[in-house]
Amino acid sequence: MKKKIISILTAVSLLSGNGIVSNAIYDDNEYISVGIKSMPNSFDTLTLSQVDYQNLCINMARETNDTTQIDNICKAFIASSRAYVRKPEAYSSKVFTSSISDNPQLSQQLQFRQSEYDYLSALYDEMGWIITSDNIEFDSSTITIDDNIATATVVESYTYFITDGFNDESFRRREYTFTLSNVNNSWEIIGITTNDPWETNDSFNYASIDVKQQLLDASYAIPVEPDNLTYEKEYDIETTATTLYQWTYDTSKAVEYAKNHYSDTSNTVFGFTEGNDCQNFSSQCVWAGLGGSGTSTTSRPAVPTSRVGSDAFNVWCRNQYTTYYSDYYFNWSWDNVKGFAKLMRVSKTTSEGPYGNTMYSKGIQNAEVGNVLSVDWDGAPAEDTLDHAMFVTEVTGTAGSRTKSNVKIAAHTSPTNSAYQTVSSYAPSTSIDSFARSYIYRGYYSVEQS
Q1: Which of 116, 191, 222, 312 would staple 179 via disulfide (CB 3.0–4.6 Å)?
Q2: How far is the C-alpha of 401 from the C-alpha of 421, rounded, in Å?
């Protein structure tokens, strides 16, 4: 008689007080039963085994109602995929999806999502980075069921410590929308989207990530000529008389603000621009670096219309705009990525406001702490094509040859989408040549800096 092999896998216990204990039993290497019943809301992704995740998605299906089953499936997919990135030999990113739909768009969504996790796993292996610990936390799901099709929305907050040379935690929050189909009384994922800023862009294509090419962008950059942003306007400084006071741009204060607020889901002073908060957040960081504090959005270092007029080129104030430009987006320099980059480009020592410059290429290669990094998701950054802004908090490597892995950013898009991580981890499908950068030298104002 064939000898039975019985093993017991214990997955643990102190999941933020959830007290979950799992006993996964195998017979002839086949799954029999496991004790876990539902997904905890906060835990280390390696605490649950692959069998635990499978059980939550498949084997417990007949013991739970539709809503609980859908909730388990969606959260298990996210958490097990994160575990797969950390330990690909023990987990899989593919077991909870099915391409049963005849809709090629849904099939592409699944392939893209799986290629994202394949890329992250390959990136960390290539760079020699190890996620030493993590914590995944879920907000409550919103689930709607219409006959045999369900839609579920889940917000993931993922904090992790990785040996990427930056010596502090990394963070990613985003909202997933799952489409599921009921086949033979079992729900299966047939589509996944997120509210990532590139994914909500009209031109986004759910093509699988080219892992090989993206690894090149993340680990190797051909040295480029410095863009000389820090010197380009020195002639203006040396030859133009000004009666304004210089205000120091303290990058340490700007970075401190970014670190304190990257995971915010609300802001009592500056609010949120739902789905487009990126430049509002980056402007806040610059504002803090120039000495901004308190609850007034119009006090210096901001530049409101009440001080310079409604048609001035240098208006820089939350929810305020100028009529100076015919292209509306340039008029919103606090809130619009194109407008802020333009403001830095045309800033003067003789006009109030932050003083800097913008280069519409080589943004990653020359990135520096305190820069506002901007990106064109279509890969051709220019004055009128920028889509998204991020604030640079740390860099490694050498200016001129930095890669996407040498630049750490803080970014907001909405209360359910934010990041504090390397660009290579944050934007895996974006070419290194897609980035511009704005450099802030200092500020100029009619009163002395306090």
Answers
A1: 191
A2: 19
Fold of 6-194: Nuclear Transport Factor 2; Chain: A, (3.10.450)
DSSP letter assigned to residue 331: G
pLDDT of residue 256: 98
0.85 exceeded by the pTM?
yes
Asked if 158 and 83 count as a contact pair (C-beta separation under 8 A), the reply is no
Reading the block at residue 390, the tokens are 């991020």
Give pLDDT tens digits for 385-418: 999 999 999 999 999 999 999 999 999 999 999 9
Q: What is the pLDDT of residues 317-361, one digit of tens each?
A: 999 999 999 999 999 999 999 999 999 999 999 999 999 999 999
Residue 62, pLDDT above cutoff 70? no
What span, in angstroms and rounded, lies between the C-alpha atoms of 44 and 160?
Answer: 9
Between CA 116 and CA 234 the distance in angstroms is 43
Cis-peptide, bond into residue 88, ω within 30° of zero: no
- Domain ranges in the chain with CATH number 3.10.450: 6-194
